[in-house]
Structures are given as structure tokens and as C-alpha cells.
Amino acid sequence: MTKLLSTIESPVQLQSMSTAELEQVADEIRETLCNLLSKRAAHFASNLGVVELCLALHSTFDFRSDRLIWDTGHQVYPHKLITGRYHEFQSIRTRGGLMGYPNPNESEYDLFMTGHAGCSVSTMVGLRSGDDVQGRTDNHSVAVIGDGAFPSGIVFEALNNASELKSKMLVILNDNEMSICPRVGGMASYLDRLRSNPFYTGMKSEVVNLLNKVPVFGDPTEKLLFQIKEGVKAGMHGGMMFEDFGFKYFGPIDGHNIHVVKKYLKMVKDMDGPVLLHVITNKGHGFQPAAEDPVYFHTPPAFQLEGETPVPTSTAKAVAYTNHARDAILDQMKHNEKATVITAAMCQGNKLEPVREAFPDRFFDVGICESHAVAFAAGQAKTGLRPIVDIYSTFLQRSYDQIFQEVCLQDLPVTFMMDRGGLTAADGPTHHGTFDIGYMRIFPNMVVMTPGDANDIGAMLDFALAQDSPCCMRYPKTEASEIKRELQTVELGKAEVLQWGTDGTILCAGTQLAACHEAARQLQQEGLDIGVVNARFVKPVDREIVRRAIEETSFVVTVEEGMLMGGFGSAVLEAANEMHLDASRIHRLGIPDTFVEHGKRDELLADLKLDTDGIMETCRQAASVAKSKNIVG
């Protein structure tokens, strides 16, 4: 029962609650999160870990005027539950329902859509600066950032800038020893040393007892306590890196003790200049299975509890494209000793654990640092290795300049495996990989490939690693399809003709190939003879196939699960124009100039006419236009 939580229409109500009442709200939030997971997959462990921190923040600050940015926005479910969205919460991650990330269209308490990591400190510094310039100096700016996101390069750019501005702002470092997978690198080691600070370990209970006796900041006893703590900290060199950046450092403190967190928030709230508060939390806190395995419970499948054991309610699904890509990579690692794999904190998301375990010396997880990952790959390629950069399409955008400068400009053989190319369903616009075709195909030296089904992936990776120039391949987050056929060899710039027709031609770039094939089969029964071509290459596009399709059939329909602007259809139009062909015969299907909302994949594809029915409808319309203009092949 959510006796208290269901009555919270505004977080302002939390400010009058006792610690005991806030702890009850915390329990009710966890109950609500578990109930959600009985219905659908959702981000889970990360949200369990920030419940007390969220309640302490909203009961200390007034974020109607103060500013709050949640880095890596998949941890905002508790925030949504106490900011007037409790009664809509069961709709989260469904079409037309709440978004699984912050969304300014939902609430004044959501300032930015934050679907990825690292930008919270920068945007917080910008908010603080903007308010200062406009004379709003009484409000507070707060950024919550996890230890997994903290090593992102942009964070240190922001810290550097914040120290120069010297304005009042608060960074909360939410340290749970995790990204999605266990964190890596020197920053992780540094934070581990801070965790071992005797102030947190040996003195923790004594400090809590003292804080419980000190009512408000400004009391001489409390000031003395801080002076003692600062002396211990200086002796241990704890937090000195942050202080060298110009931040006052406090912590680490227990992030699951609401009373203690509120105490510290009140203490640092009105300090001049930037402050960093180091908070220790545990992913999955309050639900033992998630606490023991936060990687699996990051976004677990829907489950029911049998006793205390979560039992998945969904049935086994077909193998996903991510699995096929992983298997192709693993095969390369076995047979090509120059192949390496680089990922950016997404080992689990890209299902690369078997690669990491089998080839630890050639597997590199660089943390949430995509720009570094690509430049790092360029360095490896320069030495003669064949690096495979395996990163989500939408996250790879963060390394755009390195793709240009360090890879393409140098013409280095780096292979990009762009997982989540296309629609990512319930994750929504922050995660849809809809821009990769457009942002990759414009670079000289880059080869852009789009497998039509699972059969293409291994062959395309073989092809890519045999090239002396950069290549990329994109594939979606969905169950893989396989079209039975005699597989044709992958050759640079050569499409694969599945069947040729006399009325029209579908040129498909990507895994909608199965839907195109089915559309052609059904249209055949209506009297339309439609050819189906697996484009395979967006760049270089198969100009001969484009020529033949335009000259021999009355219309051409291009299909892609990406943006129409600058996409595969644009490449076909450009080729037609350069060959002085009739481009009016070309009809493009893809994503228009808009951000696609969240929902089930099938729903989104239907909305965009990228399912079988939509492709059939477009072909009928194209045939009708051709007939009215008396266009023949």
C-alpha cells in the first residue's frame, strides 16, 4: 500500500515530513518500482539506489525555483513519483505514457532530457551562470552524477569552468561502484581510496550519532565536527583532486540514511563557491536480488515474485541482432589476432561478456568516454591492429569529431559496430539511433553498411576487417530475422537482388528487408510485380542497381529505419541525379524531420509506415502515380 506516496502531488509536501515519514515514502517507492516490473521491463537497480537521495534533495531544496539535473536520466523514477506523476506512473515507457527519462514536457521539475551520461555538470554550470547574469542569485543549482559517468571528459571541462566562475553550485557524486557494468579506470580506483577513508569506514557510526544531536548548520559543535573532519581529510589527502579544481569536498557519506544526507545538504546549501558532496549508495538497495546482481537488474525483463525470488514472466525470444554481432566479433577474435574490441561502458548492453572473458588482453572497456574510445581505436589502428569499436549508435554521436579527425581524415582501418541503429522502442528519443546513416556517410573514406538480416552480419564484419579504410555497420535492437536464400558474397558497393520485378522495385537499406520481402509477396497477389533489393551499402551505393531499377520499373521505393534527411533515400536521389535519371520515380520511406517518441517497436514502425502494411501502401500509391503519369519501366 502506498499510503503516503499516493498523496504526494508536489515535492514541497516532503519538506514538512519527519524522517520516519520520509523512510516510509522510500519503502513505498520501492514497492511501486517492484509492481512496475511485474508488468514490463524498465530501469530498476539504478532507481532503487537513489530513493533516499531523491527524497533528501526534494525535502531540502525547492526545485520550482532551484535547479536540479539528473545525469543519466534512467534513474529518475523516484523523482517522477514525487513530482506529481504517481497516478500516471504505471504508463511509463508505453506509447503515450510517461517517458523513462526526464522530460520537460511532463513536468517543470524536469529541465533537460538526459538519456546519456556526463553533461549534468556542464548544464548545471550553465544554469548557474544564466541565473547569475540575470540577477537570480538566491536559488541553487544541483547536479547529481554517478561515479560511472564521472570520468567522461566533458565532466572535467565543466569542473574546470566551474572553478573559474566561483559561483554557488552543488555537484553530488553518487558513488555506487557501478556504471551499468562495474566501472573501470583510474577514477574508479581514486574513488575506492576515498571510500576507504577512515572518516567513512571507521568513524561512520560515531559521525552519524554526532550529527543526530546537532540540529542546524551554524552550531559551534557542528562547525567543530567539520573542522575535525577536514583535518582527517587533509591528512589522508581525501578529495584533494576536487579541491584542486576549486571545489569544497565533503564526504563520503551514507546515501541511504535520509537524516544524514539532509544534514549535509543543509550544511553545504548556502556555502559560497562550488561544492562536491560525495554520497555512497548501492544499486538495487532495498531489493536483495537487485543488490546482489545490479548488472542483470539494470533493466531486467518483467518478473513476478515467488517468495523472495523474481521469476521472469516473459517467454524466451528469438536471438537478437546484438547476439549475432557479438558472435561475429567473437569469431573474428578467434581467427584474427590483430582484431581488438573497444566499448564505452556497454559490455553488458552489447552482450560482449564472452569476448571480454575469452580475450581480456584484446578487450578494452574505456568507461563512458566515447570520444576517447574512438581516438584510442585510431591509435591502435595506426600500429597495425584492426580495432572494432562497439558502441550504441546514439552514443557514438559523442565522438563525432574523433570519427572525422582521428579516423576518417587519417584513413585508418577502424570498424564501427553501431548497435541500436534505428528505433529502440521504450527508451525513446534519447536512445533511438536514427542519425547514424546521415552522420557517417558524409565522411570521405568511410564505408557505410546496413545488413538486411542476421546472415549479413558475419560476412560484413569479415569484409570490414579486410579493408584498409574505416567501415561502419548498423543494426537495430530487436529480434533478428533471417531470409532463406543463397547468400551472395559481400562486395564493396554491391547490392543483393532478392528478386526482380516488372512493376516496381523496393530498395531496402537495413533489417526491414523481411517486411519488404513480405510486402512484395502480398502485392504479387494483388497483381503488382515488385522487386526487392538488399542494398547492403549506403556508401558507396550500388549505382548500377539504382540505374536498372529506375530504367526498368515504373517506380522505386527506398526503405530505411533512419532519418530521411541525408539518409539512404537521399543517397539514391543523389545517384539518380548524377546519372541524369528520372528521380521523380523515387519514393522514400523513413523517419521524417522529427524526434520519434517512445513506444513498442511495432507501434512506432507502423506509425512511420515502415512495417509491411506501410510499405505495401507506399508501393500502391507509387504505382498509382506512375500509372497516372503513364510511366513505364
Task: Looking at this protein, list some descriptive labels.
633 residues; alpha/beta; Rossmann fold; 3 domains; 5-stranded parallel sheet; 24 helices; 19 strands; 39% helix; globular
Description:
This protein is of the alpha/beta class. It has 3 domains: about 5-290, Rossmann fold; about 320-475, 3-Layer(aba) Sandwich (Rossmann fold); about 495-630, Rossmann fold, CATH 3.40.50. The radius of gyration is 27 Å and the shape is globular.
Summarize the structure.
By secondary structure, the chain is an alpha/beta fold. It has 24 helices and 19 strands.
Structural class: alpha/beta
Largest sheet: 7 strands, mixed
CATH topology label of the largest domain: Rossmann fold
Mean pLDDT: 89
CATH architecture of the largest domain: 3-Layer(aba) Sandwich
What is the rounded distance between the termini? 68 Å
The top-level CATH class of the largest domain is Alpha Beta
Overall geometric form: globular
| Radius of gyration, whole Å | 27 Å
Please report the number of helical segments: 24
The percent of residues in helical segments reads: 25-40%
Instruction: Spell out the CATH superfamily of the largest domain.
Output: Thiamin diphosphate (ThDP)-binding fold, Pyr/PP domains
Main sheet: which strands, in order across?
9-8-10-11-13-12-17
Number of structural domains: 3
Query: How big a fraction of the residues is strand?
Result: 15-25%
Count of beta strands: 19
List the uncertain runs: 198-208, 230-237
